[in-house]
């Protein structure tokens, strides 16, 4: 396992078409590194280049070259690299191997597999406040429907939850009847948003409501909440 501190970065330069006993060299090298416990290795493919023979190799849309340059990189301790170097030289054949001193600040770690945990039943009770906002369906805020903007604002301000209700009949301060007719959809029906959270959270959100709601009604009331919900337990909790 690779540890923080001094280490060696190994770069092996190959041609894509190179083989070792009929197997692509890069594949043979990866297998060797894998089974010798190297922490990790990456194969990088070039799109153009030349090597010791000074022949330009490049990929094009019409023809894909099988002699493009490849580079295999891995980082290991000096002791581990010295142990592997002889075999790597044999596998690389005419390719080039470069060693570079480096420092590992943080080694990679294997990802932890999350085991599914059945949800646990949780009951919440307590005092809270309910905010109701009454507006018109055609009301806008910065070129978007006001009720949509309010929901987005509540979510951004961590309000526990909000529900939007569309009225089928009603009137407001102008005493104009707004009705949802069967043959066509009215675009000025009444809209009510209902949100429940703590007194502190809703009071902190009120100044933003006052900025956004130019004409409407905002009502706050005390509520007793009994909330049943299911919460998945954190599988990684110690």
Word description of this protein:
This protein has helices at 25-35, 78-92, 146-156, 199-212, and strands spanning 5-15, 19-20, 23-24, 41-45, 48-49, 57-58, 69-76, 96-104, 120-136, 140-141, 144-145, 162-166, 169-170, 178-179, 190-197, 217-231. The chain is an alpha+beta fold and 238 residues long. The chain has 2 domains: 5-104, Alpha-Beta Plaits; 120-231, Alpha-Beta Plaits. The strands form 6 sheets. A 4-stranded antiparallel beta sheet has the order 4-7-1-8, covered by helices on one side. Strands 12-15-9-16 form a 4-stranded antiparallel beta sheet. Strand 2 and strand 3 form a beta hairpin. Helix 3 packs antiparallel against helix 4. The chain is elongated.
The number of domains: 2
Q: Number of helix segments?
A: 4
**Structure summary, number of beta strands:** 16
Instruction: Find the structural class using helix and strand composition.
Output: alpha+beta
Spatial order of the strands in the main sheet?
4-7-1-8
Distance between the termini: 24 Å
């Amino acid at each position: 396992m690779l540890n923080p501190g001094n280490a060696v970065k190994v770069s092996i330069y190959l041609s894509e078409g190179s083989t070792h006993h009929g197997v692509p060299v890069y594949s043979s090298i990866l297998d060797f590194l894998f089974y010798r416990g190297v922490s990790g290795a990456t194969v990088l493919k070039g799109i153009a280049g030349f090597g010791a023979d000074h022949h330009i190799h490049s990929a094009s849309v019409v023809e894909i070259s099988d002699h493009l340059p490849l580079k295999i990189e891995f980082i290991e301790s000096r002791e581990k690299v010295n142990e592997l170097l002889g075999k790597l030289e044999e596998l690389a054949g005419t390719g080039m191997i470069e060693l570079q001193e480096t420092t590992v600040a943080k080694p990679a770690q294997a990802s932890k597999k999350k085991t599914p945990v059945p949800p646990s039943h949780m009951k919440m009770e307590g005092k809270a406040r309910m905010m109701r906002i009454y507006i018109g369906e055609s009301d806008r805020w910065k070129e978007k429907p006001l009720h949509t903007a309010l929901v987005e604002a509540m979510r951004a301000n961590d309000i526990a939850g909000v529900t939007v209700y569309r009225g089928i009949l009603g009137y407001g301060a102008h005493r104009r009847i707004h009705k949802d007719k069967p043959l066509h959809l009215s675009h000025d029906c009444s809209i009510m948003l209902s949100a429940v959270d703590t007194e502190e959270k809703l009071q902190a959100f009120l100044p933003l409501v006052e900025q956004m709601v130019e004409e409407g009604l905002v009502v706050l009331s005390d509520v007793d909440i009994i909330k049943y919900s299911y919460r998945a337990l954190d599988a990684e909790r110690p």
